[in-house]
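I have been asked to look over a protein record a colleague put together. Alongside the sequence sits a line of tokens, each denoting a local backbone shape. Please read both lines and tell me whether the tokens look consistent with the sequence. Take the sequence as given and treat only the tokens as open to question. I have pasted the whole thing underneath without changing anything:
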Amino acid sequence: MTNADTILIIDDEVQIRRLLEITLSANGYKISEASTGKDGLIHAATTHPVLIILDLGLPDADGIDILKKLREWYLKPIIILSVRSSEEDIIHALDNGANDYLTKPFRTGELLARIRVAIRQSMGPSDDPILTFGTLAIDLSSHMVRKNDKLLKLTSTEFSLLALLAKNEGRVLTHQFILKEIWGMGYLEQTQYLRVFMAQLRKKIEDDPTKPTLLNTESGIGYRFGS
């Protein structure tokens, strides 16, 4: 077992740490633990974990402040695991560098899936410029999209939007992040504009646009590509 397999848990709840230790160890991960923000920062610097699970309600600091300090140098995934469930808290964490956000109580199976996606994404883009998701193929070099081997007609903006989401598979992207990346700083409040484009895109790539399986809405927060 190497540091490449280590997941750091920063959480002051002993029961949560024990549950995560049992679950993650059973799935091949080595565990490093910290019960305070200060110790969490030290463990992150010394163990070089492949991923950090961070609680927001720490006894010595607000988790958002620890998140900001980590993001000054730590480039690998950080998943927030917190009892805070308001849209404001989730958006604030995602906008400050969290890769994902789960609320307590949580399902261990879902957490494991989020961890796998986050780690896979952190490994960087594949040499293959074609992203495949079932029958959907996105060619990043030629800007072409095929579904069931049939070429889809996407506008340049639709392609850019789809590519951004697909390259961040499994990660929640906030409305503001997407608007800034695709349209620029002047569009940060145009969430309705984004909804229109997402509706158009779903009609083109989803089997049933009313029950999307790829372009998923995170209500009040943003969108997630895939599970």
